[in-house]
Amino acid sequence: MRSVRLLPAFAALGATLALTATACGPTETPAADKPAAEASATGGGGAALPKDLADKLKKHGVDPDKWKNGEWKNWDKDTWLREAEDFVNPVIEGLWDSRRMQTAKSPDQTIATTAGAGGSDPVPRPVQAQREKTPYHRNAAPVGKIFFDSPQGHMVCSGTIVKDPRRPGKSNMVWTAGHCVHAGQRGGWYRNITFVPAYNDLGKSPSALRNAQPHEEAPYGQYWADWAVTSGEWINRGGSNAAWPYDYAVLHVQPERGKKSLEETVGAALAVDFSAPTAAQAGTIGAWGYPSAPPYNGLIMHKCLDRASRMTTAPATPTMYRIGCTMTAGSSGGGWFRALPNGKTVLVSNTSIGPAGGNGWLAGPQLGRGAKDAHEMVSKKFAR
Description:
This protein is α+β, with helices and mostly antiparallel strands. The protein has helices at residues 2-17, 36-43, 51-59, 64-68, 98-102, 136-139, 206-210, 214-217, 232-237, 262-266, 279-282, 369-381; strands spanning 110-111, 130-131, 143-150, 153-162, 173-176, 191-197, 223-230, 249-254, 271-272, 284-289, 302-307, 309-311, 320-325, 335-339, 345-350, 354-355, 360-365. The strands form four sheets. Strands 2-11-10-14-15-9 form a six-stranded mixed β-sheet. A six-stranded antiparallel beta barrel has the order 3-4-5-8-7-6.
């Protein structure tokens, strides 16, 4: 009964995530509309950091040359940039090679199921995560992996390409979780943040992926973030129960080479629903991502669909959505989607937390005014 009831919504969500015919396939060279050397010079890579990034590092007492040569590995809290306006993410050519991406770990964000129980619905039954069909660039093109460095090492989350209202059809914006870009009350901005859409396009096993061609692992290349915005609540209180309802972030990314936008290259992006519908109004929600904590390995895209229920994590905080889902850490930041009555699929949340000591459900924030403000800030900054 349960699976039959969800099939129509599942089909609608899956169909909308499928790639449009305008995108490059994984055997092509995406966005190769100018030489790679020229792209590196304008994209922030190469021998020197762009002047604006170098000036920002100097302002905070960081030597740009030392940063490029390894100073970014210094996580001293006295120099760790943490304020909203402090984000810097200089491109380091060749840092995210195949081995480094495949060995990235997932941030483990969990919460006791009793937290905020007074405003929560009963814990949902687990829904077994299903593998997405391959190739991913045809079935879930906007979904990808976000790689970043933290004091704990090289890490991984999930993310989704979303539309930019000021650059229709040419978005360079990616939606993810706040804890995938900023350490919250424990620190500052993470570093070397890059987005790889449709990672491991053919769903290869670890042994097969080690011998895969570059376009099979990263069919559209890497997109380094050149700006990020998360909520003030996450920056100030991130990691506490009171901050999970604000665990969202928006990235602006730049192409690895060429001038084409992320949306043009991949051929798909999703609108974001900032109306914050109640769980009952949201109905069936689908969560996509790359779970990496056992029993998963982080290389395969999965999805879950379930009817949304309510969860609160602390008194006097907004209600979160919760669904039954067996995906684990690594799926953090992955988009949650719902189909509107007109058939349009929109992003309505992102994976934030799961249960301590196991799996079986996921929770994500409702996206209201604060989330819309974050999205608008990124859009306005790069409007032209």
